[in-house]
Write a structure and sequence with these properties.
By secondary structure, the protein is of the alpha/beta class. The chain folds into 2 domains: 2-146, Rossmann fold (3-Layer(aba) Sandwich); 168-405, no CATH class. It is 42% helix and 14% strand. The strands form 3 sheets. It has a 5-stranded parallel sheet with strand order 2-3-4-1-5. Helix 5 (104-114) links the parallel strand 3 and strand 4. It is globular and about 70 Å long. The two termini are 42 Å apart. The relative contact order is 0.11. The mean pLDDT is 93.
Amino acid sequence: MLDNFIKTHLQISTYQNLPFRRYLYEQVNWQARAIAIIGARGVGKTTMLFQYAQANFADPAKCLYVLGDDTDLLQVGLPSLVEQFSMLGGQVLMIDEIHKYPNWAQIVKNIYDKYPGLRLIISGSSQIDIKREKYDLSRRLTTYTLPGLSVREFVNWETGSEFTPFKLADLLTDPLACSRQIVDQLASLNREKIIQLFKQYLEYGYYPYYRESRQDFQSKLRNAMDKVLYEDIPVVNDLTTNSVVILKKILALIGSRQPFEVDITSMANTLQITRPTVYAYLDYLTDAELLIQAHPAGTGKRLVRKPAKLYLQNPNLYQMAGNLLGYQSKSGTIREAFAINQLSTGHRVAVPKQGDFLVDEKYTLEIGGAHKKDTQLKGLANGYLVCDDLEYGFEHKIPLYLLGFLY
């Protein structure tokens, strides 16, 4: 039974030999009994699984990779595969796109309980909410979320640098030292300037597969988005094809506004659906990492459903959507989308009454171009201008690209 699965493992592994490791790799406790790595399509989950297997196991019969929707797996059944794999000395089973396997949560729980000597590593859609699963997987799984590439990772990959992440407090306290370190190191390597690299990142640097072919990147990104819309979201949320059409209209609506300030009633009327359905669809798109919802600051722990602003999840999506729909996104929208995207990995971000973003209920950021004035920050002790097209930071003026060095 294992022969076909081992063959598939070896076939896929030949395309997963990238030496570059995502930042999350070193943070994962690979010795845990059960690990879940969730994230959007194309951010490197599959590559991470194979990097672990290749670094620790020479024999796929000991550490085996399978796809959740593999026809052989669906025919044989995951419980039967696990039984034989364990009986023949298998140690680690990696199940990719687990959300596509029927009744996956209960089966994963049963495997965990029945085979204490077997380690499980599963990966799946960013929509999977382990805490909400009725089979109490949160107690069994150690869960990690993998975002897209940061600017730091992109720059390291493109230039061979070894920049380490900055802490947000250090970046805001001494932006000159942080920016000087980056500029000087790139200059010593005779590489592109950081502003050039940052512009490249905004266009195509969020998803690691840009390395396969920059010429085809937009097409691949569109295909990946279609798979999320037509496969991942409907599978997880039990939606129909008609619902997918509405999801695409929401993305087009938000992508074409600069930026999108939320009016739920207007959206419901435009899309001809109810207000509760609008909220539900926004949540589906957010969970699928196609949208970011920015909620108003000052609400404490109260549940506030209506977001203050909506953004496509990262700048690459704006570039793709603009090319597809025939418009050019405003630079201000892309700047804000980049800022909230990078800050949201590790920090709480809200929309204050004064400034663009309030981070960790402490730092107020105003996002703009190199000549942006600090008018919006008057009277704020922890107010900072975050400016595009700025190579060096000084005082309370922070280069926008530095937000991409947080992870």
